[in-house]
Amino acid sequence: MKPEEPMFPSSIAKIRMCLLCTAVMLFTHDIQAQTPVLNITGANETLERNLRAHIAMPNLSCDSQADRLSRFSPPIRRSILGASRALGFYLLESTTEFIAGEPCWSLNITITPGEAVRVSDIDINIRGDEQLFNTVLNDLPLIVGEQLNQASYEQIKTNLSSRAVEVGFFSARFEKSQLLVNLQENSAAVEIDFDPGERYKFGTVEIEPVEYLSNEFIRRYLGFDEDAFYSSNALIELRNSLNDSQYFSNVTVTPALDQTQTSNVPIQVALNLRPRRVYSAGTGVTTDIGPRLSFDYENRYLNRNGHKFDVGSSASPVEQTVDLNYTIPWTKPATENLRFSGGFLNEDNDTFENQTFKFSSIYSFINRFEWRQNYSLSFQHDEYDINNEDEKSDLLITGLSLARTRADDALYPTRGWRLFGQVRGASSSLLSNESFLQFNLNGKHITSVGPGRLITKFEIGTILADQVAELPASVQYFTGGDQTVRGYKYQSLGPENELGEVVGGKHQLVAGLEYDFSIKPNWKLALFTDAGNAFSKFDDFELKQSVGIGIRWLSPIGPIRADIASALDDDNKLRLHISMGPDL
Predict the structure, then answer these.
(1) 200-216 pLDDT, tens per residue?
(2) What is the pTM of this model?
(3) What ranges in 34-149 are assigned the alpha helix state H?
């Protein structure tokens, strides 16, 4: 039996490893020392960087003599001339000198840039409808009075050509494009005469048939008419709309330019359906409702007109829900739908117990200002207990809401905002026990500040009603918890009765400020403060405030947050808050 080998290297092995590392370092240093050196003096940072990018060092051995090296001076001087003129230095003077030496030869270049040529005039003539090219003309990379940069001049031509293709001018050409340099005045004038030519139109849109959805239904996603002017943006929007519909696993939208016989471009659409039925289950946890189990079912296309049905359910110690939705895509299915819903909510927290049965219909669409607009009509039956007072309520509620979110990243935005506004109400003369009118407004804003992000949030709500106490807990205002005022229990804040028990509020005001920054990849540290409360009278508003510190893990499914918050009242309680999901 062989003796067991030692777990760690012996002292001799360690010495060998050190000697090997030293040898490698010396060898690497020797190779670097035997590399030709390019020295440039007299040039600013931008010019030096351009010179180094254009000058090709001779591929000669380090022991080459100066007379052999000097043969490469003419092409190097031409490279210097081209690199300097590209940045407007037409009066530049330079000297080049090869120095033979140890351990390797070097090339020394001395630059006297002189005064740079500046742009004196930009004359761009576009034949035909110039307005189609305003996006290019209003954002030129060259500006009169600035130093000439030939790359920017070429970029103008590239932008014009790209825009022409984007809007259907496939035979566009430059009748004239020249850069006129006047060395006596040290100026340069741009002259461009651009002829877009004939503008092409959309031809026949050929949609590859799929098994469970009708061609007529899919065509309702088209945001353009056949024979309309060609636009690559319209094709991108079509592809995005079909992708976002959740019907398809793969979408290909192709302009068949090789099949163009006239000025009409055929469009080919190829689609692969996603699985029809989807079952999913999951677990999660938040401090507000505790550990949660969820189960969801979705039928993505019940019929050839794209009707959808889904069931969502969840259970936690505080909250149990079941929601059923039947969605009918409307005239513009990419942005418009009619949804019928039914659901049940049972909530039992430290402030109240509430059971809600709800049936609703919602018409939803994107309006011309790009806001999601919803009209809703719902009937809900509530059975609730606030401070051992059992109540029942029936309400037929009509509502209007507007919402919009803009962000540079869906999961972890560095810039963005969200705004939601709602008005809803019921009348005792129409299938309701009580009359009320409620206004809600909340929002969030994220911006980059220094090394991190500044996040601000707010919630405002008010109810117009004779007796707010007669409304169900699902309508009244309570606050506190992970998403509102951290440092306090979920739904634990509100006006109090004579016994010090929390009752529902008529108004709500909440605000928060947070700053987070990276401490290591995918981990953030956050500092925050929240303030607000629910209340019945403005002259009896008691502000509840907290401060805290938190950690964020940027998981693949979105940020997961853990916060420690201190309630700034008499006892300064500390409370842990765990939450997850996108910031907006």
Answers:
(1) 999 999 999 999 999 99
(2) 0.80
(3) 45-54, 66-69, 73-85, 134-137
